[in-house]
């Protein structure tokens, strides 16, 4: 964009045109900003793929940013979320971000007047950016460089993490691989591990169909990696039992460590480390160059401290654009915020 003061126009794009423009993006486009993600959003209650748009400066024929928006139905309000978007087509600055948001809000007021707010990512703080209404975001993450060979990857780790990885790989009887033929019935065993993990670490999870729906809807863009034990367990558990898993996504050169779980036995044998090792090779062979471990703690996300301790063992930290709420209907948004605060106070 040559100047943020130029008029910005928002245009709806057909999938083919959107993807053609995305091929020229300066960095890998997030899977949530691509057509394959629509199939997943379409099967989750309360979500509907809305529109893919481009932001154009002046009379330019190529967009300076791309945004895919999904409509979320809340209790008495609707909003649009550009998850891990916009995708910038080059270097951008604070004024460019502001110009895009202003144009997008004006566009949504006309095209979807029932929408209360937009949720999108931004790098620079601004008065029109508000902390998320009901969930948390993260603006730091850990990324594993998949282009490194085994020796180079181990050398990139701290001495303590390198020793931990080697120790985990020496434990006999633990295997980890992509289970491409996983059945719905077999998935129940994995979901039970997730329930144990959520109970132990005190976080909420969705019903099993949400995760199974993600695997089915994304098809080749989703992979379930499972760590299993080859021996019989101390309490007579069968050989071949699952102890840990990671549900990852892959799109182009980017892969994401989306959901993960491990039971008590997995912790004893550090099955998570074995999974990370197996995923590196598998995802690299599939064409991915990086594996995003999806968020560590920062000032905006202090609750991620426990998972951050685990993730920083396997790769370097980096800053990313966090999500913010952008108001389309300020009065209604403020009423919603007040109502949610009152509700939390009553629960407390």
Question: What's the arrangement of secondary structure elements?
Answer:
Layout: E1 8-12, H1 15-22, H2 35-41, E2 47-57, E3 65-73, E4 78-81, E5 87-88, H3 94-111, E6 115-122, E7 129-130, E8 140-145, H4 150-156, H5 159-170, E9 174-178, H6 184-201, H7 208-218, E10 222-229, E11 241-251, E12 254-262, H8 264-269, H9 271-285, E13 290-292, H10 305-311, E14 317-319, E15 322-327, H11 330-347
Parallel strand pairs: 4-6, 12-13
Antiparallel strand pairs: 1-2, 2-3, 3-4, 3-5, 6-15, 7-15, 8-13, 8-14, 9-10, 10-11, 11-12
Helix pairs in contact: 2-7, 5-9
Q: What is the strand tally?
A: 15
Helix and strand pattern: EHHEEEEHEEEHHEHHEEEHHEHEEH
Helix % is 25-40%
Mean pLDDT: 93
Structural category is alpha+beta
Proportion of strand residues: 25-35%
Shape: globular
Largest sheet: 8 strands, mixed
Give the termini separation.
48 Å
Ranges where pLDDT stays below 50 over 5 or more residues in a row are: 1-5
User: What is the radius of gyration?
Assistant: 22 Å
Total helical segments: 11
What does this structure look like?
The protein is α+β, with helices and mostly antiparallel strands and 348 residues long. The chain has eleven helices and 15 strands. The strands form two sheets. Strands 1, 2, 3, 4, 5, 6, 7 and 15 form an eight-stranded mixed β-sheet that branches. Strand 3 and strand 4 (78-81) form a beta hairpin. Helix 2 (35-41) runs antiparallel to helix 7 and helix 5 (159-170) packs across helix 9 (271-285). The protein is globular.
Kindly list the characteristics that best describe this protein:
348 residues; alpha+beta; 36% helix; disordered N terminus
